[in-house]
Design goal:
The complex is a heterodimer of chains A (538) and B (397). Chain A has 538 residues and is of the alpha+beta class. Chain A has 13 helices and 16 strands. Chain A folds into 3 domains: 203 residues, Histidine kinase-like ATPase, C-terminal domain (Heat Shock Protein 90); 69 residues, Orthogonal Bundle (Helicase, Ruva Protein, domain 3); 172 residues, Ribosomal Protein S5, domain 2, CATH 3.30.230.10. Chain B is globular, with a radius of gyration of 22 Å. Chain B has 13 helices and 18 strands. In chain B, helix 8 links the parallel strand 15 and strand 16. In chain B, the strands form 6 sheets. In chain B, strands 11-8-14-13-15-16 form a 6-stranded mixed beta sheet, sandwiched between helices. Chain B has a 4-stranded antiparallel beta sheet with strand order 1-12-9-10, with no helix packed on it. Chain B is an alpha/beta fold and 397 residues long. The chains are: A alpha+beta (538), B alpha/beta (397).
Chain lengths: 538, 397
């Protein structure tokens, strides 16, 4: 038995369990590859304070093989880091940081490279240039057992067509299809949640790029990194922190390793745990650590600072929705920050309602209603469904669209638990409402609780559900006011069209009996129309 | 108005004497044609002026329902109480408003051209009005009734406005000669209602121009065609020296007016012979005698206040042994009878009627005219009518 026992490398594990990371099938593999690369690019640009400009290219090589390239104008990567970032699983800067970012684990992009190498035999190709440095071109093969990259090509060029940036290219086995949960869908949704990004997308077989223009020209504020909040730390992690700390005393350990712990709070916790302020952290045994853990949970500690969060903001969400989703009505709400398990988070909800393109009724100051044809402004695939379809939910975590597992997502549950009938949409019991509407839900957090490593659905923490529901109610109320007014105007319009239909006959009757001239007849009908329109209130 | 009201006179028939009456001429002899034209003009002018001033115009007309009539036995017919309804131009009324004006315009043309339109024709005329057309004749009939009501205060009737019902009046046989005139030549045409063979004279839609001649003693107004045929076939009118009129359900305006004219003009008593059920009593007989709530504005001349109720009465069911030839009252019958007791001013005015209706409700049954066939097909001629005619004083009012 002992002979057959041996260590399993992360890469090997992944090779056998690629569905865990979103490579279950060729179609999803294509999407996941692009998604991981775009996430990285956006993160990199924002960290460097650069307005992102991202190019996504897909070329079909064979029937089931595609070459995918993602290029950005980010800061570029220093030469030494390139093999690690792209060739090693679970290598990254974001896993240990408590800062809001798109990527978390440091698996994504290297997993894409690995997937490509396994399905098409070729490892990833990287071009990267920093502002001052030279352009480096790498080709690599990944060593599955050692979880590291073998560089097969390493060239230096003086010039590149960009001042700075990174290009990632990989051949993968994939299927390209449009529609829901497609690459197109993902890019469009990314454009909604990142109105500051310019995205160019060239689909397979196309020579022209589809350009998603940016609607705002400011880079979002970079979220600050924070220390963990005491409430969010579990016993095991607490013990690890006690072992590894540089603090000499328990009191300073609490104050230095956690946020929101000052001398007073530290004193209270230690007293409640029946320990001494000057205990050595590294000597605290399991039993005492448990007391400390319990004491932390019982103590009153203020909520973590929210400077670590970078919400998109109501204005930008509106811009993003208006840009990619042409609707009659928009309402957006950004909730104040809240906390789950010691992790600060913030919920933002937007709604776009009403398919334009039909007739619009407008009321002027005098109370007249006019019918206006509204022109469609976008020609892209429609996010808005028909009035008898269920509403479309766009879910985002740290600005990244979540395309899969809608049914298992906490956001979806919150939408279903909200009573939309009050807001003018029809809804059968505990299901999604019906209507031509898109509901945008974004969670910004230092640590987004996904239900799986593929980052597809948000876990159903009560604190999160509550915040989402409150935000939904806020936009719902605004929507309700709009829909009710619309209904009123349209029923009034119908009544007025009815009047309009028969008034001329009053004129004809009067003309025939009294022998009026045509002008007299028109005049009296006009007078009646005027009187009726202005005496009717909306 | 008050001056025109006539009190019902007691009519006593002079047996077998020949009497005549010429075409009807309204006292005061107003030129109703120009009154009609003038009224139409006035209503339209009023609407026009109001509308031009920026005010929503309206039209006022009497409410036409039982709640808006009173009954005084001395006057003899349902009179309007004077409750008015005002139709203001708004979203709910704009279509009817337009249609009213357009039908008034049609009436104006017809009065001017001396033409007429049946109610059905008026309905079809509207089909040329585009959006304002009527979808069903029921709608145009309602508007016509409204127009008639609106002008009734000036004694202008639907007939003067040249709208005629397309349904013909009832059938007539017996000792009566009707003197009509040829619409083209104006020549007199005499129709002897005793010389109709197995057929009958049909009451025309308009009867005021008719003259009459008779030697009969009374008029018998019959509900059903079946009974009318039996009495006609066996020449009951000859043996009883009377005039038989078939009403065919609720008598049309023309039939009511026809019976009224021979009753008034020839001094003939009128007896009604209908089914013993709430419909026969509360609708057919009541409308014949005092008119209806719907057409209350024309009741004065379109009913027969001197009519009396021969039968079949609830008491007849017992007296003539019809108990096993009855049917139970249906819920709709019971409702009709109770409604009449509660809301109909006519029945409320006569304790005898109240008693009769209560008796019927208590018995819980109804009997048809033809139920007498139980005792033999001609029992009604040989027994029932002769027995009843001997006790005219017992007839219900």
């Amino acid at each position: 038995m002992a002979d057959t026992q041996r260590e399993i490398s992360v890469s090997e594990f992944f090779a056998k369990n690629r569905h865990l990371l979103g490579f279950d099938n060729p179609r999803k593999a294509l999407l996941t590859t692009i998604k991981e690369a775009v996430d990285n690019s956006l993160d990199a640009c924002e960290e460097a304070g650069i307005l992102p400009e991202i190019l996504v290219e897909i070329d079909q090589l064979e029937e089931d093989r595609f070459r995918v390239a993602i290029e950005d104008n980010g800061p570029g990567i220093v030469k030494a880091q390139i093999p690690n970032i792209f060739g090693k699983l679970l290598y990254g800067s974001k896993f240990h940081s408590r800062r809001q970012s798109r990527g978390q684990q440091g698996i994504g992009i290297s997993a894409a490279g690995l997937y490509g190498q396994m399905t098409c035999g070729k490892g990833p190709r990287i071009w990267s240039k920093t502002e001052r440095g030279k352009m480096h071109q790498f080709e690599m093969q990944m060593d599955l057992t050692k979880n590291k990259a073998l560089i097969t090509k390493d060239e230096e060029h003086k010039d590149w067509h960009r001042k700075q940036g990174t290009r990632f290219e990989i051949d993968i086995e994939a299927t390209y299809q449009r529609g829901l949960r497609s690459v197109d869908d993902y890019i469009k949704q990314t454009a909604v949640s990142n109105p500051h990004a310019l995205i160019r997308f060239r689909a397979p077989g196309m020579t022209e790029e589809h350009i998603y223009e940016r609607a705002v020209t400011e880079v979002p504020d970079l979220a600050e990194e924070i220390k963990p909040h005491p409430y969010g730390v579990e016993l095991g992690e607490l013990m690890k922190m006690l072992r590894n700390t540089n603090s000499r005393w328990l009191s300073s350990f609490l104050q230095e390793e956690f946020c929101r712990v000052g001398p007073k709070v530290a004193k209270d916790i230690i007293k409640a745990a029946n320990l001494g302020e000057r205990s050595y952290p590294s000597r605290i045994a399991r039993e005492e650590a448990n007391n400390l853990y319990r004491a932390i949970q019982k103590s009153k500690i203020s909520a973590p600072p929210t400077t670590c969060l970078s919400p998109i903001g109501e204005e930008r969400i509106t811009e993003g929705l208006m840009k990619e989703c042409d609707a009659d009505f928009y309402a957006v709400s950004t909730r104040p920050p809240s906390v789950y398990r010691g992790n600060p988070f913030q919920i933002e909800v937007g709604i776009a309602w009403g398919k334009p393109g039909g007739d619009q009724l407008e009321v002027d100051e005098k109370g007249r209603i006019e019918k206006k044809k509204k022109k469609r402004t976008t020609d892209t695939e429609d996010l808005l469904g028909n009035a008898d379809d269920t509403v479309r939910i766009l879910r985002f975590a740290n600005r990244v669209p979540l395309l899969f597992q809608q049914a298992g997502c906490g956001f979806t549950k919150a939408v279903m638990q909200t009573s939309w009938k009050n807001y003018g949409l029809s809804q059968s019991k505990s299901s999604l409402p019906i209507g031509s509407a898109v509901i945008f839900i974004h969670m910004a957090s230092v640590w987004v609780p996904f239900t799986s490593e593929a980052k597809e659905a948000i876990a159903q923490y009560p604190e999160i559900l509550k915040e989402v529901k409150l935000a939904l109610q806020e936009v719902g109320r605004k929507l309700g006011v709009h829909i009710r007014r619309g209904k009123k105007v349209s029923s009034e319009f119908q009544k007025r069209s009815y009047i309009e239909k028969y008034l001329p006959h009053v004129g004809i009757g009067l003309q025939e009996i009294l022998g009026l001239s045509m002008e007299d007849r028109e005049e009296v009908v006009e007078a009646l129309r005027d009187t009726m329109e202005t005496t009717r209130k909306i | 108005m008050a001056a025109k009201k006539k009190v019902v006179k007691k009519i006593t028939a002079k047996k077998g004497v020949k009497r005549t009456v010429g075409p009807y001429e309204k006292k005061g002899n107003k030129d109703l044609k120009s009154v009609a034209l003038q009224s139409i003009q006035e209503v339209a002018t009023d609407v026009y002026r109001t509308a031009s001033k920026g005010i929503l115009p309206d039209m006022t007309m009497p409410q036409r329902n039982l709640a808006n009539v009173t009954y005084d036995p001395k006057m003899g017919y349902f009179e309007l109480k004077g409750n008015m309804k005002t139709r203001t131009l708004d979203v709910n009324s704009v279509k009817t408003f337009a249609q009213t004006l357009r039908l008034m315009s049609l009436a104006k043309d017809m009065v001017g051209d001396d033409d007429f339109a049946t109610k059905r024709e008026a309905y079809y005329v509207s089909k040329n009005w585009g959006d304002a057309k009527f979808n069903e004749q029921r709608e145009s009939d309602m508007v016509l009734d409204d127009i008639e009501g609106m002008f009734s205060v000036k004694d202008v009737t639907r007939e003067i406005l040249r709208f005629v019902p397309e349904e013909h009046g009832g059938s007539v046989v017996g000792a009566l000669t009707v003197i009509d005139r040829d619409p083209e030549t104006g020549e007199a045409i005499r129709s002897d209602c005793a010389a109709m063979g197995s057929g009958a004279y049909t009451v025309p839609s308009s009867v005021d121009h008719l003259g009459f001649e008779t030697t009969a003693d009374f008029v018998l107004a019959i509900e059903t065609g079946g009974m009318f045929q039996r009495l006609n076939h066996h020449r009951y009118w000859r043996t009883a020296n009377c005039i038989l009129v078939e009403m065919g359900g609720v008598p049309t305006r023309a039939t009511r007016r026809f019976v009224r004219r021979i009753a008034d003009g020839l001094k003939l008593p009128v007896f009604a012979f209908v089914d013993c059920d709430p419909y026969g009593i509360c609708n057919i007989y009541r409308t014949l005698k005092v008119g209806s709530g719907q057409a209350a504005h024309v009741n004065e001349t379109f009913c027969v206040p001197t009519a009396h109720y021969l039968g079949v009465t609830p008491q007849d069911i017992i007296d003539f042994g019809l108990e096993d030839a009855t049917h139970p009252l249906l819920p709709v019958d019971i409702k009709r009878a109770k409604d009449a007791l509660k809301n109909d001013p006519f029945f409320q005015a006569y304790p005898k009627w109240k008693a009769a209706l209560k008796q019927m409700l208590k018995m819980g049954v109804r009997a048809e005219q033809q139920a007498f066939a139980k005792w033999g097909l001609n029992f009604v001629i040989e027994e029932y009518l002769p027995v009843k005619m001997k006790q005219i004083h017992k007839f219900l009012p």
